[in-house]
Design brief:
Blueprint (H helix, E strand, L loop, with lengths): L26 H19 L4 E2 L2 E2 L1 E4 L4 E4 L2 E3 L5 H21 L2 H5 L2 H17 L2 H9 L4 H27 L4 H9 L5 H21 L1 H7 L2 H4 L10 E4 L1 H4 L24 H4 L20 H13 L6 E4 L1 H4 L9 H22 L4 E7 L6 E2 L4 E12 L5 E8 L5 E3 L5 E3 L3 E12 L6 E10 L6 E9 L4
Antiparallel strand pairs: 1-2, 3-4, 4-5, 6-7, 8-10, 9-10, 10-14, 11-13, 11-15, 12-14, 15-16
Helix pairs in contact: 1-4, 2-15, 4-6, 4-8, 6-7, 6-8
């Protein structure tokens, strides 16, 4: 059996070398910046938006209500969550088949928060070269001050992130008051610290390690690629052989390709890969290398596109088919699922009824000759308005319904149970039968719901 390979120090694995991505400007970097601002703005601002007497988005777990602006969802509506997960999965398939790890480069929370932490790091420690110089410098007052200021920024931002996360489940204004008075509950404190700590560790220290070793998407993404998938590629036929040259020199006269071997594409990569070695699973499709290479090509007077979004067929000089049966099928299914979800949510029934038979007695024989069964009818009003409901029953000739009052009042977002006595003539039923119990709002007859119940009577 062969012994495991070790490095020169005798360890099984080489120590991680910290990556200092170089800051770059360009059209793709601007898109990533816009995406980060939009996504972070949505995350941090939405809990503060008021909606009537509550916040716009609130997942009220104790009350089992999930408020999303004007929409209030109940546990009975959890199939919408399954629907959303299917849409999310299909979206991932669609965008991956279309343009590789597009989600990873522009919208993944790990990417967005890592970029935010990198921005704070550059704000305090300076550019890439200044950060590397500071890391090698001996500890002194300036180094302690800069490193300490960076850590304080990271910790404050991470705690704010955890606080905001809990603010989706606990009214954020009440939570803010509790935090200021150090009066948060144990679970609120735990989740603020846990989510804040996860953000601090993942975005501040682990960074590309999450993308390379922890994210399963990096491992199975190739199963969704084909030769017509847009990926970030290096045009080897145009770029090789690479080498330095003076500006204005015709590379062909020197036997060189267009690549000047500046390594900027490597310096700007947040995962530290060299795109010139081909497509690698570590690539998160952030396109920073495209912006860096285009900037260099502009300076030396060569055409852009040495590193670019392209397909394998395109690199090989063949016809490209970005729009193809696979992407058309994904897009069609996505459109149908989204349209179906929108229609179902906007046309869902906001009332529901649950009918439970009284198990203390199968039936009662009344002096007037009728058979009586007792039920507990629970009316759920998922609407944002109060309603009064009338209860009716059908399915057996001569059936009658008796309950306290002529209607049942149910407040907005509340459940009201009412005992209901249902009677039928003794000669109208032998043994038992299924009956239909229905509720309908008196002010809005279209708000109705029903359910079946078993009516028991003597079998003689």
């Amino acid at each position: 059996m062969t012994a495991p390979q070790t490095d020169m120090d005798g360890g099984l694995y080489a120590a991680r070398q910290k990556i200092y991505p170089r800051e770059i400007e360009g059209r793709f970097q601007r898109l990533r910046t816009i995406a980060a601002w939009v996504l972070l703005g949505i995350y941090y601002l939405i809990p503060w938006i008021p909606w009537g007497e509550r916040q716009a988005v609130l997942f009220d777990l104790p009350a089992r209500k999930f408020h999303v602006f004007a929409l209030t969802l109940w546990p009975q509506d959890f199939y919408f969550l399954t629907w959303l997960l299917v849409i999310a999965a299909l979206s991932l398939f669609f965008f991956t088949a279309l343009a590789g790890r597009l989600f990873c480069g522009y919208a993944c929370p790990q990417t967005v928060w890592t970029e935010t932490f990198l921005w704070m790091e550059r704000l305090v420690e300076g550019s890439r070269s200044q950060q590397m110089k500071l890391a090698k410098a001996p500890w002194n007052g300036e180094k302690v001050l800069r490193k300490g200021a960076k850590q304080l920024l990271w910790i404050a931002f991470a705690l704010w992130t955890g606080f905001t996360f809990v603010g989706y489940f606990t009214p954020i204004r009440e939570l803010a008051v509790s935090v200021l008075h150090f009066a948060t509950g144990p679970w609120e404190t735990f989740w603020v610290l846990f989510y804040g700590g996860a953000t601090y560790v993942n975005a501040g220290f682990m960074r590309e390690q999450v993308c390379k070793y922890m994210c399963p998407y990096a491992r199975f993404q190739s199963a969704m690629f084909d030769k017509d998938t847009l990926v970030i590629t290096y045009d080897e036929r145009r770029g090789e052989p690479r080498g330095a040259r003076k500006k204005g020199v015709d590379p062909k006269s020197k036997g060189l390709g267009d690549c000047v071997d500046c390594t900027l594409c490597v310096q700007v990569c947040p995962t530290g890969i060299d795109i010139r070695k081909g497509l690698q699973y570590e690539c998160i499709a952030c396109a920073a290398c495209i912006d860096a290479c285009d900037e260099v090509m502009d300076k030396v007077g060569y055409p852009r596109g040495l590193v670019r979004y392209d397909t394998q067929h395109g690199i090989e000089g063949k016809a490209k088919h970005v729009v193809r049966p696979r992407t058309i099928v994904y897009a069609t299914l996505l459109a149908l699922l989204i349209a179906g979800l929108a229609y179902t949510v906007t046309h869902r029934n906001v009332v529901a009824v649950d009918i439970i038979r009284d198990r203390n007695a199968l039936y009662r024989e009344r002096p007037d000759g009728r058979i009586e069964n007792v039920y507990n009818v629970k009316i759920l009003n998922k609407d944002n308005q109060d309603h009064e409901f009338a209860i009716t029953a059908s399915g057996v000739p001569g059936i009658e319904v008796d309950y306290a009052g002529s209607t049942v009042w149910v407040g907005a977002g509340q459940v009201q149970g009412v005992p209901v006595r249902i009677r039928v003539p003794r000669d109208g039923l032998k043994g038992g039968a299924d009956i239909q119990v229905e509720i309908a709002a008196t002010d809005k007859p279209e708000l109705r719901a029903g359910g079946k119940a078993r009516f028991i009577s003597p079998s003689d």
